[in-house]
Amino acid sequence: MGSSVRLILVAILAAAGCDTRTLTFPMTQVLEYEVTPKSEQFLAGEEVTLRVRISNHGSDTVQIPDPMLAASTQFVHTISGPCWPDGVRFSNSRRLQDGEGDGDGKPTLIPIAPGAAWEGVVPVTSFLSLTEEGDYRVHSEFNFQGVKAQSKESRFQVTGLKPRSIHLGMGTRPLQSGEGEGAFLDAGAVYSFTYHEIRPSIGEPQLNRPIRRASVGPDASDVGVPWRNGPFFNEMLRWIVWREGRALKALSSTMTESFSVELPGEVSHLVRPPLKRTGGPVEVLALAKNETSLYLATVGAQLGQPAHGAVLWTAQLPVAAGPIVAALGPESGGSVRHVAFAANSGDGFRIYHSTYVEGGKLDEFKAGPIEAGHVLAGSTLGLIVDKTGLATVGAIAVGTDHQTVSFVEVAFDTDSKPPAAKVTQLGRAPDTLLRATVLYPSQDRKVSAIQLKNSMVMKMTDDRLSDVNEPGTPTSPILLAPGKQTTYILYVSPGRGLYLEGL
User: Fold this and answer.
1) How far apart are CA 74 and CA 78, in angstroms?
2) Over the stretch 431-490, which tens digit does the pLDDT of each residue have?
3) Which of 260, 284, 301, 499 has the greatest CB tally within 10 Å of its CB?
4) How confident is the model over 88-127, as pLDDT tens digits?
């Protein structure tokens, strides 16, 4: 598994009848040719790459065909496995048709000096699909100027994607099209991926293949990507955070190892999303293990400078928090930070809300009571703030029968007026509710997704429950991504990996 593919090529071109005026290999030239998978194991949907290394152990410079050019068919790789039982042949970044790959074509040559080596990476999954789990075999063939050789086999494994923690980060959308970045924890590592809405008019998103970013500890959890009150990609440094015990871990787009901030006490979980204004650090709220205390920590760095972080404050909550969410107010209003959570109380529940400003403490919480129902653990609240500072919190509530569904909104104004609550009955679901999420893509647009115990997924349409457009298995928690006209739900399949579908 994962052993190098090694070929020792001894080219005696005179014997092969080559024109000595155009020799590219000295008569006693020895090349070492290695083709190895980047890893012994890949997740389904992850980018699979092969590393190619050609070393010149001779005493003279040698010229070889450029292995990275699409027209270079002197280096042919073959992969076989569950997706391709009969094997599929390719060279550089394109699949070869039958008959191609016998060293045909006039290659572009590149020099390798004595004692030097050429190295390159072949991105296999940019043109081949490796979505089925199992063992795969790869070997390579060299064919140039009458010199032929075949490699020994090298192996790698594709395993099913089963993220134990996942999140989507997003920001404002100047052109209204969806965009952002996601991260998840799986197989002892943190992975990231970007997504864009490439055809808003027909609701077509593109989710790029996940990339392994760094190793994580066995107790890693609560991965998060910041939500922005500016365009998500307007800064060169982008961040991912997660938790390992009491340690808040952070990784920027230029880091290969995480930075750590120790939190003041034991932690129940990190509040998602983490927040980031343009030019500022990432702000991460953490709910203490007793669920009645809240910690605020920050992490940041300037481009090219080491990361730094600190714990800014600890605040007491009025009651133990259930589902909890954070949001940034508009830049025009000073980027006020908002925090909201739900707490069940008797036959009903309350929605609590508070704010804090940069450098300030958490304000006193206000509460909006709901007389009946409760918010399921593992669900996600929606939270949006308008230009006046009005914060609206949305939640899916379930009755005592675990099937009667309502949509609850509570508006928190900046003045002393009591919170205004509105309850909309959505009907009865065909099975017990498992979890739900609410998202506000804009002030006049609200969406929700609900997962039932029978794995069915439903949504809120015109104040009633309806089936989703495309069924699938949502992530946990349920994650939604807003587009220009369409809102997308993130699905996960062990073989296919992650993918977005219009809700």
Assistant:
1) 13
2) 999 999 999 999 889 999 999 999 999 999 989 999 998 999 999 999 999 999 999 999
3) 284
4) 888 876 777 665 555 555 778 889 899 999 898 888 877 7
Closest among 264, 290, 223 to 477, alpha carbons compared? 223
CB atoms within 10 A of CB 86: 5
The phi, psi pair for 201, rounded to 5°, reads: -65, -25
What secondary structure letter does DSSP report for 6? E
Cβ count near 332 (within 10 Å): 8
Q: Are 327 and 227 in contact (CB under 8 A)?
A: yes
As a whole number of angstroms, the distance between CA 457 and CA 489 comes to 10
Residue 346 backbone phi and psi in degrees, to 5: 65, -130
What DSSP designation does 278 have?
Answer: T
CB 132 within 8 Å of CB 152: no
Query: In degrees rounded to 5, what are phi and psi of residue 155?
Result: -130, 150
The tokens for 245 are 């015990």
Residues in CB range of 447: below 8 A, 6 or more apart: 438, 439, 440, 441, 459, 460, 480, 482, 487, 503
Residue 201 CB contacts under 8 Å (≥ 6 apart), including other chains: 485
Strands 275-276 and 227-228, sheet pairing: parallel
Nearest in space to 246 (alpha carbons), one of 273, 223, 219: 219
Distance of CA 29 to the CA centre of its chain: 46
Q: Which CATH number fits domain 5-159: 4.10.640.10, 3.40.50.10170, 2.60.40.2970, 2.40.50.1070?
A: 2.60.40.2970
